[in-house]
Design a protein that fits this description.
The structure holds two protein chains of two kinds. By secondary structure, chain A is an all-alpha fold. Chain A contains nine helices and no strands. Chain A is globular, with a radius of gyration of 18 Å. Chain B has an eight-stranded antiparallel beta barrel. Chain B has a two-stranded antiparallel sheet with strand order 9-10. In chain B, a hairpin with a 4-residue loop joins strand 5 (about 265-275) and strand 6 (about 280-305). In chain B, helix 5 crosses helix 7 (about 125-150) and helix 6 runs antiparallel to helix 7. Classes of the chains: A mainly alpha, B alpha+beta. Chains A and B meet through helix 1, helix 2, helix 3 and helix 6 of A and helix 1, helix 2, helix 3 and helix 12 of B.
Chain lengths: ~180, ~475
């Protein structure tokens, strides 16, 4: 079955195609949900809710952009809807100094597997994690992050810088252990 | 973005996580829209379609109350000459003619050609890929054939492979296991769950049977004939070849002009279309057509005249061959002339109402958003009513309804050729714009009536189709 056949079948409400979509794309979407959810159980809930939304709105999907990107966006939006925005309420003073600091990441990351990287990113504080995921993995601009999450662009920038520093500390710590 | 972030993005973007897809499907299947809801929508459109037809019929019914206009010209003194072109000519007239598979590595490799992907990404060598594909492809083919024929022997993986090569199971497992171990981050391989190896043959067989059924269902779905309904409307301009035999009926002439010559005549039709899988479609439906025309009836008179200024205009007639207007410039008022004149007896605005049933076969060129549709076929033309008056052979006129049996054919056939551009407005809705040509090879009048009327029409149409 090709992607377009699955889309067409789902738009017509045919169960066989709907199930095929779940089987084919849920592993990829689960990774997206895991990155934004607090834990594995929350990720499952988000995936379930996102899947229902995908099927409800698939008739509105237009084959202009990537179908997978469209589904990823639904997952992200679903995950962020349940997200507590209070974790972003941090002071943003000193942001300029933070950005001006030279940033160098230890080479340890090149030895890490995908799952290990996910675990490390998952250890980031909630606000850091969301902004890091949106900007670095999904390629959102700070303006887009501010619209999606409901924070200011400055907050988004500060969260990203802090996330980088946090990651750096964790990787340095890991490098010492490795050595 | 620095190298670290590039690295993360590259690794995480296409990463997949294990999901119990069956459990997920069971938990959401109740909450997602099903085909039945779509069908309900289709029924709604069908209702609208019926409503449109009913509206059309009401419109026709209201038009049937029309009474032909009749103007008397008896004993009118202003006679006009009978001209040769009045006897036999053509006249313009408008008318309304108008996979990830269940966790079964064999199937997975078979369907998605994972081995080839692994070779492409330099994960394994081509000899390994070839081996994997050969073993599993052969195994699956044999197994499916066995199941299809009812000879399955619970020997899906190990025994079937054993038929192919010596110690194949161990080798195949080793290769797959190696691939799994060394390529965890490669998405498709992640799905090759080691649990598969722990499955008993019976479980695997069930999975294969299930997959086979699904494949069959998908194939059936592709070949299924789809239905659509729609509306078409358009302009049509028609010509009618119109003739009578001068020698037999020289005592009268009929002149017809078209009242709707400068009007936009609309065609309205309800379409029912069947789509076949090979781009061929069949269209039928109901189409309403109305023709309005003005008949002027003249009666011939012969008289002896001595003046060219007679109020009765002379005519060029083979029987008399006289012409008082003196085309050769040689006017001679003194000679008596035997002239033939015509007198306007009456005029009638007549209407004919038709219901067309098209039986059209079409071929769609191109399956993209924009496609070309070539149509050809027949259209059965049923005349439902005629209103107005007609001149009779004995010199009188009569209501069309009373002389209908000797005048009009009730049923006629027209040929149809059309060319349209189709534009997909959505997955189910299509817009159609094009032109058509219709030709009635048979006269709408019967053999024993002197006036022969054959219609041919060209027009443009626009329509919309909705797939049920």
């Amino acid at each position: 079955l090709t992607e377009s056949e699955i889309i067409l079948g789902c738009q017509e409400g045919k169960a066989i195609y709907q199930k095929e979509l779940v089987v084919r794309y849920s592993p990829m979407l689960m990774t997206v949900c895991r990155r934004y959810a607090r834990d594995q159980e929350s990720a499952k809930d988000v995936l379930q809710e996102a899947m229902i939304k995908i099927f409800r709105y698939i008739h509105k999907y237009k084959p202009i952009g990537s179908f997978q990107a469209w589904m990823r966006r639904i997952c992200i939006n679903t995950a962020l809807q349940t997200f507590d925005k209070s974790c972003f309420k941090r002071e943003i003073s000193g942001l300029d100094e933070l950005i001006a600091q030279p940033f160098s990441m230890p080479d340890v990351y090149s030895y890490l597997g995908t799952e290990e990287l996910m675990v490390i990113i998952d250890k980031l504080p909630e606000g850091f994690k969301q902004v890091f995921n949106l900007v670095v993995i999904e390629g959102f601009s700070h303006r887009e992050v501010s619209e999606v999450v409901g924070i200011t662009e400055s907050t988004s920038r500060s969260q990203l810088v802090r996330a980088r520093n946090y990651l750096k500390k964790m990787l340095v710590k890991r490098d010492r252990i490795r050595v | 973005m620095n190298n670290f972030e590039d690295h993360i993005k590259r690794k995480l973007k296409n990463h997949t996580s294990p999901v119990d897809t069956d459990a997920l499907w069971n938990s959401i299947s109740e909450d997602i829209p099903k085909e039945e809801e779509r069908k309900k929508r289709g029924i709604f459109f069908l209702f609208l379609f019926g409503l449109g037809i009913a509206g059309g019929m009401m419109f026709i019914y209201s038009n049937l109350s029309y009474q032909g206009e009749l103007a008397h010209y008896f004993h009118k003194k202003t006679d006009t000459p009978l001209l040769a072109e009045d006897i036999h000519y053509e006249n313009n007239m408008n008318s309304r003619h108008d996979d990830m598979m269940p966790p079964n590595f064999g199937y997975h490799v078979f369907d998605n050609n994972i081995a080839s992907k692994l070779v492409t990404s330099n994960r394994i060598e081509s000899t390994q890929a070839s081996f994997i594909n050969t073993v599993i492809f052969s195994t699956l083919s044999i197994e499916k054939d066995e199941i299809r024929e009812g000879n399955s022997t619970n020997t899906f993986t190990s025994k079937s492979i054993a038929h192919q090569i010596e110690e194949p199971t161990t080798i195949a497992k080793e290769i797959i296991a190696t691939v799994v171990q060394t390529n965890k981050s490669l998405m498709p391989v992640d799905l090759l769950d080691a649990e598969v190896f722990a499955m008993d043959d019976e479980t695997i067989e069930k999975i294969v049977i299930e997959e086979y059924k699904e494949e069959e269902e998908v194939e059936k779905e592709k070949k299924k004939v789809k239905m659509a309904i729609g509306f078409t409307t358009g302009y049509s301009s028609s010509k009618s070849s119109f003739s009578t035999d001068l020698n037999k009926y020289e005592y009268y002439a009929i002149k017809r002009s078209n009242l709707e010559e400068h009007k936009n005549t609309m065609t309205l039709s309800g379409d029912f279309v069947l789509f076949f899988h090979n781009n061929i479609r069949f269209r039928t439906g109901v189409e309403y057509t109305r023709i309005t025309e003005l008949f002027s009836y003249y009666k011939n008179k012969s008289s002896l005249s001595s003046s060219k200024n007679s109020p009765e205009e002379s005519v060029t007639n083979s029987s008399f061959n006289t012409n008082s207007s003196g085309e050769n410039g040689n006017d001679d008022d003194t000679l008596p002339l035997f002239t033939s004149t015509r007198q306007l007896e009456f005029q009638s605005t007549n209407q004919h109402h038709f219901i067309d049933i098209p039986l059209i076969v079409g071929y769609e060129v191109g399956k993209k958003k924009l496609s070309l549709l070539i149509e050809t076929g027949l259209s059965v033309k049923i005349r439902v009513a005629s209103k107005g008056y007609l001149f009779l052979l004995d010199g009188n006129y009569a209501n069309l309804n009373t002389i209908e049996p000797i005048f009009n054919r009730k049923i006629n056939v027209a040929s149809y050729t059309g060319l349209s551009l189709n534009y997909d407005l959505g997955k189910r809705t299509q817009l159609k714009l094009g032109g058509h040509f219709k030709y009635n090879p048979f006269s709408i009048t019967k053999k024993n009536y002197p006036v022969k009327q054959k219609y041919r029409s060209t027009g443009i149409h626009i329509g919309i189709l909705h797939q049920l």
